[in-house]
Amino acid sequence: MMMGAAVLGLYVVRDLFPDLSVVSQAGALIHQYYPAVAKEGWGTLISSLAFQPQQHAPELLAQLKTMLGAADFPARLQMVSFENTVNPEKVLPAVLQFGIAKGMRGLIVIALTAAALTTFGGTVNATAGMLVRNLYQRYIRPKAATRELIFASWGSVILLVVGAFAFAVSLRSINDAWGWIVMGLNTGLMVPTILRLYWWRFNGGGYVIGTIVGIVGAVLQRLLWRDWSELYVFAFALACGLAGSVAGTYLTRPTSESVLHTFYLKTRPFGMWGRFKKALSLSEQAKVTREHRMDLAAAPFALLWQVTLFLAPMLAVIHNWPAFWGALGLWVIGLAGLYWFWYRNLPAANWYE
């Protein structure tokens, strides 16, 4: 659906702006009249120009209408970004307005709204439940009555929603939010998730403390150094998560040897597990070594298969057939490599027993 919307977006932008240079000219003109506008306030300014023209200089509106065209002027103006280009975050609304029939348009809007609300409601309710059950009831009020827990849940929901709106005010764009979530928040969570597989000493305490430190570090970066590039955000969140994970691991007692041994036999992970591998028989060590080598050999084919699995349908949707057949051929190569190096070498179930 979204690939189809993207293709429709190309056609809608072409129809709205046969000459894309007018977009940059319109953006430069707005910046000339409002040089102090920040990126966060660009959307508000554009909406005011489109729907409250009486609050702005008539000569500015006249020039903008000459550039963009009087027909559908508010919609065309909404497409102008802070960087004087077509605003990619306005393409989908433009597709719904100009590229979809009226009856289908309403159905799609309802579906998108329902998807957003269910995701929002489910996430908020799940997080509120975690806060109340795992923090409030466990550490603050262990003997709290059901009525008190319900009020605590309501308070948690209000706190989460107000905090989310406060965060939304600071956003410059959807990409700004997505970049921070992926490069900051997810990176802080990624370190303890990876260490649990590659380091035998890592334990539950390291996971919890590393996760908390990673999240706090990502939030502090957003509050104090929000202008950092995504590279610096990634490096900072990575350092916070790593420091918290290592410190938390050594501040808490290690996992029992029997649990680690069972985990190693069942999972056979890479990394710093040599002492457990040496405890196996020579034949079992050989099996683990061979499996690791096959996994490393299969990794490039897995990456090729996954990328082309997404790329080939996209190329088909835009009717780029030469590139589609090339991507499809690479997908077949990736699939064959996965079968040869990985699938056919999967060990029998419970071989370690």
Question: Can you describe this structure?
Answer:
The chain is mostly helical. The protein folds into 3 domains: 2-99, no CATH class; 121-258, no CATH class; 280-345. The chain has 15 helices and no strands. Helix 7 (102-140) crosses helix 8, helix 9 packs antiparallel against helix 10 and helix 9 packs parallel to helix 11. The radius of gyration is 27 Å and the shape is globular. The mean pLDDT is 89.
Principal-axis shape equals: globular
Work out the count of structural domains: 3
Instruction: Using the CA coordinates, give the radius of gyration.
Output: 27 Å
Outline the biggest β-sheet.
Answer: none
Work out the number of β strands: 0
- Which structural class is indicated by helix and strand composition? mainly alpha
Q: How is this structure best summarized?
A:
The protein is mainly alpha-helical. It is 76% helix and 0% strand. The chain is globular, with a radius of gyration of 27 Å.
SSE inventory with pairings:
Elements: H1 2-16, H2 21-33, H3 42-51, H4 58-68, H5 73-78, H6 91-99, H7 102-140, H8 146-169, H9 174-198, H10 204-224, H11 230-251, H12 257-267, H13 274-277, H14 282-317, H15 321-341
Helix pairs in contact: 1-6, 2-4, 7-8, 9-10, 9-11, 10-11, 14-15
